[in-house]
Write a structure and sequence with these properties.
It contains 27 helices and no strands. With 579 residues, the chain is mostly helical. Helix 2 packs parallel to helix 3.
Length: 579
């Protein structure tokens, strides 16, 4: 069978058919349906390619894109992200290798995963686990399942072309020897110009240094010395797309984003308090809203980088929640927890200052609080410490919000806002805009009313009410209307009563809004009298007690229906009163 036809068959085959095909070619039948499908494509369609861990490193970026298309998974991303995605698709089950199940693996298994995914290998288990979780978060839904368009193609044109494997020229020992001498002569490092001269020398010797195999081997040999001299610092955030080349605009935006990573984390924590990373639409809207904070989220690389940072932070928050109730896992963590308890009171005192300096911006307050924690010597890389620090901040923030709700000033303003917005849906647009403007400047309105009440005599007479309205009109507030004037004066009266200038009975009243004519009043009075007479108890003729009980039982259903009809009439009357 032609390979293209066989590939189309493998895309559309069911689990039993895939097992039959594997048995015919003496291939293992174990694993899920997608793992079996990937195994068959690897051995029957792409048998000439080397998909081992070392073999993946020799495949060029262009070939990786074509191979990912053959396996039916996402093709975009940097060369490192592509290699990681292909390795995951060929060797792991997406239902078994998830961020939730990483804790079940041993340190040796996590270490092997880091090695296969080309991640740094230094650090403890928690550090390695966070790196693997970062890759899994960035590769979520990008591997482990063939695209639906390939499983049910509309036409044969949708099938990807099968790439051909071409054996490349093996590197000459002369190249390796020349590069080795160059490294030995420059053991303290070399400049870009010296490296360029080496490549020109190799080209003059007749070697095609632009060829992928030779170029990669030269780069690898030249970087060996630098790799040995570099001190490996385990990053808490794994950047899977760092090798991709972007324009200067994108590079500048990414650099600014990385410099403001603390702000990104603070905003993300505020988002994750009310939402989750599983709500893709909400998460996309949140990332787009970060444009108002100066982040270039309209650029896809920046959008993807922030998305990855949020996914990793979500996993870190889960680890913090777990560590908050778990025992210390190391001596360092135990000592860090002891030190945190020593500085807790200091942190609490400084936190009140942070919230006071940023009363309306919890994001800036959280960033400042993190900085204070670091200045005190707390290691926020430890999940148990980071979780306790942010839990302390969230607790005091909630306490501050609760205190604000019980503030007399806040309660008074809420009462005034309820009066202003009462029936606002029936007002015209200009009146609603006036109410919104008054709400934004409610503090100035209170100062105006307080000044007028202090300068006047007892009470809140018509002259003072007119003065309030005229002053607001002079400032551009169109409040002298039938709907707004009584509301504004009622708000002024509430403020006067709160400050002790007026008694509650002197607060200007708002009309109930029920307008009826004289004839309607007469009709309502007649109907009320009829209802009152219908509720009178009927006289019961004297008789035997047994007969009365029998009659009451027989008329029970009739009495219930009669009462229901009376209640319906009362409801109808109330509806007419409301207009």
């Amino acid at each position: 069978m032609d390979k293209s036809a066989l590939l189309a068959t493998l895309y559309q085959a069911r689990f039993d058919d895939l097992k039959t095909t594997a048995g015919e070619h003496n291939l293992p039948k174990s694993g899920s349906v997608e793992m079996l499908r990937a195994r068959l494509i690897r051995n029957l369609i792409l048998s000439d390619w080397d998909f081992s861990t070392d073999g993946l490193k020799t495949i060029s970026n262009a070939d990786l894109g074509e191979l990912l298309g053959i396996f039916g998974i996402k093709k975009s991303g940097s060369i490192k992200a592509r290699r990681q995605r292909l390795h995951l698709h060929l060797h792991h089950d997406p239902k078994q290798l998830t961020t939730d199940k990483l804790d079940e693996k041993t340190k040796e298994e996590i270490h092997a995963l880091c090695k296969d995914l080309e991640l740094p290998l230094s650090g403890n288990k928690q550090t390695l686990l966070v790196r693997v979780a970062g890759v899994l978060a960035s590769q979520e839904n990008a591997w482990g399942k063939v695209k639906k368009s390939l499983r049910r193609p509309r036409n044969a044109a949708n099938l990807p072309a099968i790439p051909r494997w071409e054996e490349e020229t093996v590197e000459s020992p002369e190249v390796e020897e020349t590069v080795s001498h160059f490294v030995e002569d420059h053991d303290e490092g070399w400049t870009f110009e010296e490296e360029t001269n080496l490549r020109e020398e190799l080209a003059q010797m007749g070697h095609e240094i632009s060829q992928a195999t030779i170029a990669s081997s030269v780069d690898e040999e030249l970087r060996v010395q630098q790799t040995k001299d570099e001190r490996s610092i385990p990053p808490m955030i794994q950047e899977t797309g760092s090798q991709e080349t972007y324009s200067l605009e994108i590079e500048a935006a990414l650099l600014e984003m990385r410099e403001r990573m603390a702000e990104v984390h603070a905003l993300a924590r505020d988002f994750l308090m009310v939402s989750s990373t599983t709500n893709e639409d909400d998460m996309r809207a949140f990332i787009d809203s970060m444009r108002h904070h100066g982040f270039s989220t309209d650029l896809p690389p920046v959008h993807q980088a922030i998305h990855q940072a949020i996914m990793e932070l979500d996993y870190q928050i889960q680890q913090e929640s777990t560590a908050a109730v778990a025992m210390p896992q190391s001596w360092s963590e135990r000592e860090a927890l002891r030190f945190f308890e020593q500085v807790r009171s200091t942190l609490r005192d400084r936190l009140e200052n942070m919230l006071a300096l940023n009363p309306n911006d919890p994001v800036k307050a959280r960033m400042a609080f993190e900085g204070e924690a670091r200045e005190l010597g707390l290691d926020l890389r430890i999940p148990s410490i980071s979780g306790r620090v942010h839990a302390l901040f969230d607790l005091h923030l909630e306490i501050a919000e609760t205190q604000a709700l019980h503030d007399p000033t806040v309660q008074r303003r809420e009462r005034m806002m309820r009066i202003l917005h009462r029936g606002a849906i029936h007002m015209n647009e200009r009146e609603r805009m006036t109410i919104e403007r008054l709400e934004r400047n409610i503090g100035s309105f209170e100062e105006l009313v307080q000044t007028i009440l202090e300068s006047g005599e007892d009470g809140f007479d018509e002259a003072q009410q007119a003065l309030v309205i005229r002053f607001l009109e002079s400032k551009g507030y169109d409040v002298n209307t039938a709907d707004l004037r009584p509301r504004v004066l009622a708000c002024a009266g509430i403020l006067g009563a709160e400050l002790g200038f007026l008694s509650p009975s002197e607060i200007p009243r708002i009309a109930p809004g029920v307008l009826v004519s004289e004839t309607e009043v007469d009709a309502i009075v007649i109907e009320l009298k009829a209802l009152a007479s219908s509720f009178k108890t009927e006289e019961i003729e004297e008789g035997d007690l047994d007969e009365e009980i029998a009659e009451s039982v027989a008329d029970a259903a009739h009495n219930i229906n009669r009462v229901k009809s009376k209640i319906d009439r009362v409801d109808d009357l109330l509806n007419r009163l409301r207009g």
